Amino acid sequence: MRRTALLCMCLAALAACSPSLNWRSVRSEAHGLQLLLPCKPDKASREVSMAGANLQLDMQGCDAAGATFAVSHVRLADARQAGATLAGWQAATLAHLHAANPQTQAFALPGSWSGVRWALAGQRADGSPVNAQAVWFAHADPAGVDLFHAVVYADKLDPAAAETFFTGLKFE
Known about the structure:
The protein is α+β, with helices and mostly antiparallel strands.
């Protein structure tokens, strides 16, 4: 039984290292988070309304092996707004994906707090089905607090690739 479990783990790790997933370490200029992405990322930034304020949302992400891997970030001046802003971000994600009742578990990233990880199924804007795994977490420093949302979207989610992506998140 232990051999079977070990073999399954090894096969999952090999799947995450497939040629279509060319993992690379990426650092954002907007914050101190190190990312592990399976392709060269695109970057974007835009102003969004969150928790009653207009905030600058920075994003990095890419598409590989039929999946989208992305990390979004906003900076709050007032750490007391972090909980409400994260809750609103999560609710907006559920609404955008026409999803409900995600499978939820804690997400621990050294140097962060309020970490949560979701697995859910929903719909894209065109009505086609999509599966997602997502994490949200916060990181504070003397000047404020950074909120993060990392997500993998795919028709058929590869659990090993998602795990590689999420375990590749690190603060410098």
